[in-house]
Amino acid sequence: MDSAIREVCDAAAAKNLALLPGAEEEITNAGIDTWTLALERHYNRHETGATIMYNTYQAYLKSTPGKLAHHLADAQKHGYTLGVKLVRGAYLSSEPKSQVFPTKAETDRVYNSLAESLLRRRHGAVLRPVPGAGNDSSSFPHVALVLATHNAESVRRAQEIRNRQVAAAEPRVALAYAQLMGMADEVGCELVRAGKVAAAEQAARGVYGPLWRTVDVPRAYKCLCWGTAGECLQFLLRRAAENKDAAARTATTRRAMAGEIKRRVRVALRLAS
Question: Which residues of the chain carry a pLDDT beneath 50?
């Protein structure tokens, strides 16, 4: 099994592609963590400049801030980039209640705080350093971050941090946003639009223009489940459980879609005239 896994990793590394294994229920995550960290130590070396392997961290678990802090310390000690895919979590109905935060508001707070600490490369109120570790960017390892979320507020907060970092010419971690295909498309489309606008502005001003460091150009991806219905069923059921609050976002999505339709009609009318 190990040779097969490393064969997949070697193929991904040859094409500079990232691998993002998903987390499972907490009772099985210790084994997944051991496996992914060992692969990160090998494939995410600073010398290569690539981040091939990521691990998934579920913000609704009370253990996640401490686990992430220890993994950051391991990356700092062994000199590799820690690949972090940050999610809220998909097993709320089956996890012991004592292991998860009691409210969605608390999970949101933890998610946003962890994201901010990783983006700024410094510890905070939620992500505390392990004993003996420093508390500044020099003691914080290299990080590559994927914010896997349908939450517009989390995305907005992250982009505000990124734009401030760009304006101040501060170093930034590698960042991407990820969502499920067909869900919260208004969030993903807004990121794509912002990226196109930012890229166009920077191209027009030129790399050496006085205002070229004004906005971050976000990268947004959609996760597509590929296979037969039987092969994909368990994945889809977990995603449905994870996104039970999707109905609450329907009104926001509907307003966003209506606004986009109006925008396209206005553009079409201007072209026709």
Answer: 211-212
Give the helix/strand (H/E) hosting 241: helix 229-242
d(CA 76, CA 172): 17
DSSP assignment, residue 92? T
DSSP state of 63: T
Contact residues for 6 (Cβ-Cβ < 8 A; gap 6+): 39
How far CA 125 is from CA of 72, 101, 121, 133, in Å, comes to 16, 16, 13, 15
CB 83 within 8 A of CB 144: yes
Question: Does residue 166 contact residue 216 with C-beta atoms inside 8 Å?
Answer: yes
Give the list of residues 6+ apart from residue 239 with CB closer than 8 angstroms, or none: 90, 180, 225
What tokens were used for 41? Answer: 């130590």
* Prediction pTM value: 0.82
Whole-angstrom distance, CA of residue 129 vs CA of residue 123: 6
| Residue 196 and residue 265 in contact, taking contact as beta carbons nearer than 8 Å | no
Measured distance CA(204)–CA(224) in Å, rounded: 34
Q: What is the pLDDT of residues 158-195, one digit of tens each?
A: 999 998 998 888 999 999 999 888 777 778 788 888 77
